[in-house]
Amino acid sequence: MMKKAAITGERKAELVERPIPQRQGREVLIKVHVAPMCTEYKAFLEGKPQDCLGHEAVGEVVEAPPEGLFKPGDRVVAMPLSGCGECELCLAGDFIHCLSNPMRDSAMAQYVVKPEVSLRKIPDDIPYEKAALACCGLGASFGAVRKLGVSAYDTLLVTGLGPVGLGAVINAKFCGAKVIGVESNPYRIQVARELQIDAIVDPRDPEALDRIRELTGGAGPDLAVDCSGVPAAHRLCIDAVKRKGKVAFVGECHTETPIVVSRDLIRKGIQLIGSWHYNLNDFPLLMNVIRRSPLTDSFVTHVFPMSKIQEALETSVSQQCAKIMLKPWE
Length: 330
What we know:
Shape: globular
CATH superfamily of the largest domain: Medium-chain alcohol dehydrogenases, catalytic domain
Radius of gyration: 20 Å
CATH class of the largest domain: Alpha Beta
Helix content: 25-40%
Strand content: 15-25%
CATH architecture of the largest domain: Alpha-Beta Complex
Number of strands: 15
Distance between the termini: 16 Å
Largest sheet: 7 strands, mixed
């Protein structure tokens, strides 16, 4: 048996005991050392009982397929979701878009089972706590930064400075870019300043678009990435980015954002990019960001033993935090 986090009611969470999951085929059983928190607070607020929480993990391989890619004792990052491992997308490193991508994640637990295709070995010089940033902490925005081609010649607009947006600041500053953030949460604004963001605009300001243009000499930023998932932020990115610019959408959103094709795309000449994760062939590059960036220490603001899951989720709901890490064995 093992312990795992569960939601047991509205704003109620606790640890429960469940059988250790059994691996099959090309799957690997992992002892979880660190489970980063992401959007689980939404289910916490909803209160529907469930014990399948968490989609990010780093840990140690316990059982693996014979003649497989991993062996017991390997330290690995377990990426979100799963993939078939055989289709064109999986073989190219884009398993996140696999059409056979089942939701089997339950990383806020002492053990998790993942397919080989969604695992990568942690370099010996990187501790578990740092390697855990390779999932949603830095990974989501890293994929967008790569797709946008961010460089030291660019100004990047980041809308939404939650954990994913703050990760975008780290990735962009590593590339040498100037970064403008859009955020109203004082706690996260302070974290962004510690991450050396260049300027911050309040989205509640009716002149926010003009403020962004003023900061870019009137032309608008070269590139933009939305990490909020808010339609108003989508519009701000599209309206603010300069002509021939690019916009990447990272924040999940299930409501419509009105777009006028002629005005917004054809005549402005911009590109809109959907970015969910990153190509796993770029994993060594992301490890270099984690290894070399001096900013990651300010990014993780809270570390909780999983035994304090209630407090951890309440902290996540408060938004007085950046990235939160759980320790399943404490």
